[in-house]
Specification:
The chain is an alpha/beta fold. Helices cover 39% and strands 14% of the residues. The protein folds into 2 domains: 63-235, Vaccinia Virus protein VP39 (Rossmann fold), CATH 3.40.50; 253-258 and 268-394, Tetratricopeptide repeat domain (Serine Threonine Protein Phosphatase 5, Tetratricopeptide repeat), CATH 1.25.40.10. The chain contains 15 helices and 10 strands. The strands form 2 sheets. A 6-stranded mixed β-sheet has the order 5-4-6-7-10-9, sandwiched between helices. The termini are far apart. Bound molecules: zinc ion.
Length: 398
């Protein structure tokens, strides 16, 4: 492979030479902490598609090489917060966002060094918090269970194979769990002088928002960023949080006999509304949106007050990008039954896409009032309040 054909570690697209910095370049140089040149240029490349900025200089290193060259006794000189201050601050962040789940959630700190963050979370009353870190023999065994929350602070920029790391993190998250992580994304205009581009700190790969989304999507995770550094990932919801589909009733012998040979049997008698709804739901969950929409309308033709059909017809419109119609339909469902949390949740998502952010906040709040243990609603509400710069409210949820 020639230098010109080095593929992006995230998306596989072509990369361009970004130039090189000395190995001893560290993050604190603009605070006056400058190490003598190591006379060892570290070349970086940047993806032409997703913008991921990375070096391959350490790809062949073993953990012992990292310990000797980077995470050695001098590391604290260029990253003094590593010893504990950052972990304590991170515990505060976790508590402020997820404090409501202290009694229930199990937490893993991935890449957690000496275990300070997990210990601090336990001290703050979280009932289960542990550490995984391949560089610390105390915590180097990969857990065999899955967790409600995986924390991964200041880690992703340090790994030579970010997709493998993200895949491993994803595999440690329970089906309804989430990830909170930090890594600084690149500024709009990035050049070799960017302070975060620092091999001595072990910064091997720096993301853009696009690169982060690309890296998590194959595992079915969507991202939410509170700012350039703090992000969360959680599994994308199915088309909508839907109730389980009811099985279609099998045809009786008479119906089977009446069915034309070689074609799908068609029941003769008009079916009850709930059977049509169940079939619509089945199509919807299988991604056949147009078919689902047709059947929801069939339900509504005989039962115009069928709130679930109005709601899911609205969800289907939302999925098809018709958000005005979606808001109208879900609003009709809420007018019929205002006490279903998922109606409010989905109206919140529609409003978010319509950029009616305050309206979306109200929806997520209502969903949480109706169903306090609703992590999806909490997830979006916290993110929205941060985006709206009302962080104080975000900290006292729901
Ligand atoms: Zn890329």
């Amino acid at each position: 492979m020639t230098a010109d054909t080095v593929p992006c570690k995230i998306c596989g697209a072509a990369t361009a030479d970004f130039g090189a910095v000395d190995f001893n370049r560290n993050c604190l140089e603009n605070q006056g902490i400058k190490l003598p040149s190591a006379d060892r240029p570290i070349p970086y490349r940047r993806c032409t598609q997703c913008g991921y900025l990375f070096t391959r200089a350490f790809d062949a290193w073993e953990p012992a090489d990292y310990q000797r060259e980077i995470y050695n006794d001098d590391y604290l000189v260029i990253d003094p917060d590593y010893a504990g201050a950052r972990a304590i601050a991170s515990a505060g962040v976790v508590e402020s966002i997820f404090g409501a789940y202290k009694a229930n959630w199990s937490i893993l700190d991935y890449g957690g060094g000496s275990g300070v963050l997990a210990a601090e979370l336990l001290r703050r009353g979280f009932h289960a918090a542990s550490t995984y870190d391949p560089f610390n023999p105390l915590f180097s065994e990969l857990p065999k269970t899955r967790f409600d929350l995986v924390c991964c602070f200041e880690t992703l920029e340090h790994v030579p194979d970010p997709l493998a790391t993200i895949g491993r993190i994803a595999s440690l998250v329970s089906p309804t769990g989430m990830v909170v992580f930090s890594t600084l994304v690149q500024p709009k205009e990035v050049d070799l002088d960017w302070w975060y581009l620092a091999p001595r700190n072990g910064h091997i790969g720096m993301f853009t928002a696009v690169a982060l989304a690309r890296a998590w999507a194959p595992h079915g995770f969507e991202l939410l960023s509170w700012n350039d550094n703090l992000h969360a990932a959680r599994r994308m919801a199915a088309p909508a949080p839907l109730p389980a589909a009811a099985a279609e009733p099998p045809l009786n012998r008479q119906q089977r006999r009446a069915a034309p040979r070689g074609r799908k049997p068609v029941p003769r008698a008009p079916r009850p509304v709930e059977a049509i709804f169940a079939e619509a739901l089945h199509h919807h969950q299988s991604g056949r949106i147009a078919e689902a929409e047709r059947l929801y309308r069939e339900v509504l033709a005989t039962s115009p007050q069928h709130a679930d059909s109005l709601h899911l017809l609205g969800v289907a419109a939302h999925q098809a990008g018709r958000n005005g119609e979606a808001a109208d339909l879900i609003g009709q469902a809420i007018a019929i039954n205002a006490n279903v949390a998922v109606y409010h949740y989905n109206l919140g998502s529609v409003r978010m896409e319509n950029r009616q952010l305050n309206g979306a906040v109200a929806c997520y709040r209502r969903a949480l009032q109706l169903m306090p243990d609703y992590p999806e609603a909490q997830f979006h509400l916290v993110g929205l309040l941060k985006a709206l710069e009302r962080p104080d409210e975000a900290l006292v949820l729901p």
